[in-house]
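[Automated response] Your request has been received and processed.

Submitted sequence:
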Amino acid sequence: MDLDLEEDADEAERDAPALEDGRCVSDLNRDVPVAGAGEFAPLQLGPLQVWPPVVLAPMAGVTNLAFRSMCREYGAGLYVSEMITARGFLMGNRLTTLLASSSPDEKPRSVQVYGTDPKDLGEMVAALVEEGVDHLDINFGCPVPKVTKNGGGSAIPVKPRLVERLVRAMVSNAGDVPVTVKMRKGIDEDLITFEDAARAAESAGASAVGLHARTAAELYSGNADWAAIARLKSILTVPVLGNGDIWECWDALRMMRETGCDAVIIGRGCLGRPWLFGELVSVFNGEQPANPPNFGQIADILLDHARRLSDLFGPEMGIRQVRKWTTWYTKGFRNSAAVRGLLTRVNTFEELDALLQQIDRDEPFPRQALRMGRGKGTKRQKVRLPEGYLDQRDDDTPPKGPHTLEEIRAWERALNGG
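Generated structure:
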């Protein structure tokens, strides 16, 4: 999943008062109850047990070690790395290696891999298992044109035998480490692929299948089709992980109740809101969550995030990384558009700190911001596939992926919006 900066100008400058009981919850979810005792089970992935049944979605340019460490401190669950290219990892590409990095206290450690060559996938998995990774996921859902036009990402589930071949290459080298798959519903509404592709992944030994309930053509527009998640749950025996439109902790409970899925995957809803994972822990444990932090507390969280990005990438690259986060952290607060324009152009940590001194630190979190779009907006796309790709859907020949270091760098730039 790739994300770009989304300008919201003054769209968020509308007040939505807290509920009568003081809770910060949308009208959609005001009557949703917390989990009952024993209502939900931990997610079981091979020997790995995850409670609450919550997974941080792998997101390019987002779920690096800095953000994963923040989410982990707020809550619990499984926190997946951003997508790591198998060929770049095996070639020792500096950025690929950095994005795949972990820390000794990151347990369980989860890595999402991308590759279209079974040999590369097998070698990468074997290396990661030797490093002590606890969970592996493979990306069959990336809708980026540069990826799909070469037969990768969302294009792979078009060919179930190819899905089976790639998953089997991972599983055969993973030992006891569980391998899962993440995919979309299909290319578009005329080419739905998830059922056959998920069955193929299961037959190859996948421990679970995650479904982003949108097509590649939809990108992140419209409403996620939770009925597709329920359908997938009805045809598989391995756990099903639902993804799409989890903006509040209450949405996770509703998705699991409505679809019967075994866990939820949290994507754009946590951008600029790492505390969402603490709220998820509360509701799954049968407790009312605390209200979100106020603007001053969020400013402190943003500064902490900036420090972690600088520690990971170095000061110059770290501050460039934090610019997009300033939009997400400040989204919805009154009169924040003006300071946000300056925040997205900061060049030093000191500039960032000085600008954040201008905000109203006591302003409570705006209820209307709970369900505001974050990351990609409402656009759709025509999915680009290789010429003749649909002529032989039973073919398991791997597509050409990035191979040279320059190809890998270009591919990773495309995923990160340049």
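Summary generated for your ticket: The chain has a mean pLDDT of 91. DSSP finds 15 helices and 13 strands in the chain.
If you did not submit this request, please reply to this message.
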